[in-house]
Amino acid sequence: MAKELILAKYGEMALKGLNRGTFEDILMKNLRRRLKKFGAFKLNRAQSTIYMEPLSEDIDLDEVLEHLQCVFGIAALCRACVCEKTMEDISAKAVPYLEEVLLGAKTFKVEAKRADKAFPLKSPEICAELGGILLDAYPHLSVDVRHPDVTVMVEIRDTHAFVHGANLKGAGGLPVGSSGKALLLLSGGIDSPVAGYRMARRGVHISAIHYVSPPYTSDRAQEKVEQLCQELTPYCGNIAFFCVPFTEIQEAIKKYCPEEYFTVIMRRLMMEIAQKIAAKDNCLALIAGESVGQVASQTMQAIACTDAVSRIPVFRPLIGSDKTEIVETARMIGTFETSTLPYEDCCTVFTPKHPKVRPSLEEVEKAQGKFDFTEMVNKAVEGTTMKVFELS
Ligand code: ATP
Ligand code: MG
C-alpha cells in the first residue's frame, strides 16, 4: 500500500510576517497534543503546510481528520498519497489510491500545483497526463472542469509529490494560545459557550468561570456547565474551570438593593469577582455572551453599567449576532443540546419583575451603594474552586 499522510494547510497564519514561526510552533504543539491518543506521528512543516505522517499502519486517518477539523489555525486538510517526483510514480500510485473516491463519482478534474518549478512538466501538462491515465483506468468517468464531483490534486513539493482528493475545510482562525488567555463567563445558556468558541478561534486560550447559588441552583445545573466545558475542549484545548459560590451575594442584593436593579448589580459583582480570578489565572480579558438588545439586561446602557467596574477589557464576540446565528453555531460545535437542558441559572433565581431597561451608571452605583459588598466579594473569591477539563 502506498504511504499516506495528512496535510494541514494554514489559514490566516500564512500571512503573518516575522512572528509566523511562533504561530507555527504553537500550532505544531497543539497538533501533537491532539494526535497523541491516535498513536505516533512524525510532524514536519514546509510551505505553509504541516505534514503529519503516521508511524504505524493501524491508525484510522479518517477519524484523525475528523478531530483535526476542530483545530484552529488550519484552513484545509486532506489525506494524501506520497509519490516520487516522477509522472510514472505519480500515475502508478494515483490510480489505485483514488479508486474508492473515483468509483463513487461520475465526473472529475485534475488540478496541479507545482511548488517545485524545476519539475519538468508544467501544471497543465501534469493535469492532462494524469487526467488521461485516470480516464483510461476508470472509463465510466468524464472530465468536467467546472463542476466536477471530484477534484484530484497533484502537488509537486520539495522532496515528494502528493496526490489527494478534495480538501476538507479546517476550523480556520489562529492556533489556540497564540493570543494569550482570557476568562469566559460561562452560564448554562446557549450564548456563552459560543462566545468562548469564537474567541478560541482567534487564538485565545480560554479559562471559564461559573457562578452558582445553591440551594437555589442545583448540582445538576453546575454539572451541565461542566459538561459544556468538556464539549468545548476539542476546540479550546484544556480549560481551567472556576466555580464561584454566589448565594450570599445574591441574597444580599435581594435584601438591600432596589429590585429593578438586581440584574445589573449582580452582573457588576460577577465582573468584580471575575477580574480577581482573571488576575490569579493570568487572564488578560473577560469574555461574555451578550448580544445587543437580546434581553433587558443587554441594552447598551446596562452593558455600560456592567463594564464600568471592569479594569480589563470585556470581549463580547456575539454582540452583533442574531439569536438564529448563535443557535446555528451552537449546533455546529455540539453545545446546543446541553445548553437547552432545563436547569436553572443563578441569573434566573432573583429576576426582577420590572428590570430597569436603561439604567444610568449614577442610579446603579447608588442602588448598589446600599450595601458594602467588598467582604462578600473577597469571600466568594476565596471560596472559588477550580478543576481542569482536559482535551477529549
Ligand atoms: P447565555 O445564553 O450565555 O446564558 P443569556 O442570553 O442567557 O446568555 P444573560 O443571562 O443576560 O444572557 O447573561 C449574559 C452573560 O453573562 C452570559 O452570556 C454569560 O457570559 C454571563 N453569565 C450569566 N450567568 C452566568 C453564570 N451563572 N455564570 C457565569 N457567567 C454567567
Ligand atoms: Mg443565560
UniProtKB/TrEMBL annotation:
Record localization: Cytoplasm
Coiled coil: none
Source species, domain of life: Bacteria
GO molecular function ontology, one term from the record: ATP binding
Pathway: Cofactor biosynthesis; thiamine diphosphate biosynthesis
Entry-linked Gene3D superfamilies: 3.30.2130.30, HUPs (3.40.50.620)
UniProt GO BP: thiamine biosynthetic process; thiamine diphosphate biosynthetic process; thiazole biosynthetic process; tRNA 4-thiouridine biosynthesis
CDD domains documented for this protein: PPase_ThiI, THUMP_ThiI
Keywords: ATP-binding, Cytoplasm, Nucleotide-binding, RNA-binding, Thiamine biosynthesis, Transferase, tRNA-binding
The EC number(s) this enzyme carries: 2.8.1.4
Domain THUMP: 62-167
Catalytic reactions of this protein: [ThiI sulfur-carrier protein]-S-sulfanyl-L-cysteine + a uridine in tRNA + 2 reduced [2Fe-2S]-[ferredoxin] + ATP + H(+) = [ThiI sulfur-carrier protein]-L-cysteine + a 4-thiouridine in tRNA + 2 oxidized [2Fe-2S]-[ferredoxin] + AMP + diphosphate; [ThiS sulfur-carrier protein]-C-terminal Gly-Gly-AMP + S-sulfanyl-L-cysteinyl-[cysteine desulfurase] + AH2 = [ThiS sulfur-carrier protein]-C-terminal-Gly-aminoethanethioate + L-cysteinyl-[cysteine desulfurase] + A + AMP + 2 H(+)
GO cellular component terms listed in the entry, alphabetical order: cytosol
Annotated binding of ATP, by residue: 185-186, 210-211, 267, 289, 298
InterPro entries per the UniProt record, alphabetical: Rossmann-like_a/b/a_fold, ThiI_AANH, ThiI_fer, ThiI_N, THUMP_dom, THUMP_ThiI, tRNA_STrfase, tRNA_sulfurtransferase_ThiI
Family: Belongs to the ThiI family.
Function comment: Catalyzes the ATP-dependent transfer of a sulfur to tRNA to produce 4-thiouridine in position 8 of tRNAs, which functions as a near-UV photosensor. Also catalyzes the transfer of sulfur to the sulfur carrier protein ThiS, forming ThiS-thiocarboxylate. This is a step in the synthesis of thiazole, in the thiamine biosynthesis pathway. The sulfur is donated as persulfide by IscS.
Protein name, as recorded: Probable tRNA sulfurtransferase
